Amino acid sequence: MATRNGKQAVRNGGSGFPGWALFLAGVVVGLILFAFASRHLPSLRRTDQPQANPDAVAQQGSSPGIAGSSAASSASQFDFYKVLPEKEVVIPNTELSAMAKAEQQQAAAANNASASAPAAANATGATPSEGGYVLQVGAFPKTSDADAMKARLALHGFTAHVQAVTLDGQVWNRVRIGPFASATQLQDVQKQLSAAGIHGIPLKEK
């Protein structure tokens, strides 16, 4: 009797793992193996999703290029330096400053000497026969663009006029302020334009 009870005790209370523990361990091991295989075996990866291309290179003509082309297009429709070489010449700013300074010195000398009014006038500017000075604010192929610039100048208190000329077969509508009797007047208006954020080039009419 004692021997039978001992065998039954060994059969019921042995050191084997319960069935549910073995099942859970198998599931965990299976998940680990699946994760490892899906990470390292290319055949298990999905190919129907977009894949990154490590050799990809940015294409030319992206948004910066488009912006650059639009800026170039805008610049091609506007030009300061459309002049008639046989009738006018661009005055460099350094030369304009020297001319204005010389005029002011002549005017001061004339006033100190109590010169007559006609003499003082001749000292401060060129006579009509010598030509005049103008400021060219821009040249546009389209009349509407030139009129828009003229209106902008009017808002700042400047009276401009539009002059149409043909250069190399192209009609340009030049926006100008002037003429001025002296380089001093020309320089003063140029400084006022610059303060308003508007660029103008000084010209001397031949």
Note down, in words, how this protein is organized.
The structure is a single chain. Helix 4 (93-112) packs antiparallel against helix 5 (117-124) and helix 4 packs across helix 7. This protein has a five-stranded antiparallel sheet. With 206 residues, the chain is an alpha+beta fold. The longest helix has 22 residues, at 19-40. It is 49% helix and 17% strand. The chain has a domain at 78-205: Alpha-Beta Plaits (2-Layer Sandwich), CATH 3.30.70. The chain is built from seven helices and five strands; from the N terminus they run αααβααβαββαβ. Residues 5-10, 57-76 and 119-130 have low confidence and may be disordered. Strand 3 (161-167) and strand 4 (170-180) form a beta hairpin.
Task: Annotate the secondary structure layout.
Elements: H1 2-12, H2 19-40, H3 63-76, E1 88-90, H4 93-112, H5 117-124, E2 133-140, H6 143-155, E3 161-167, E4 170-180, H7 183-195, E5 201-205
Antiparallel strand pairs: 1-5, 2-4, 2-5, 3-4
Helix pairs in contact: 4-5, 4-7
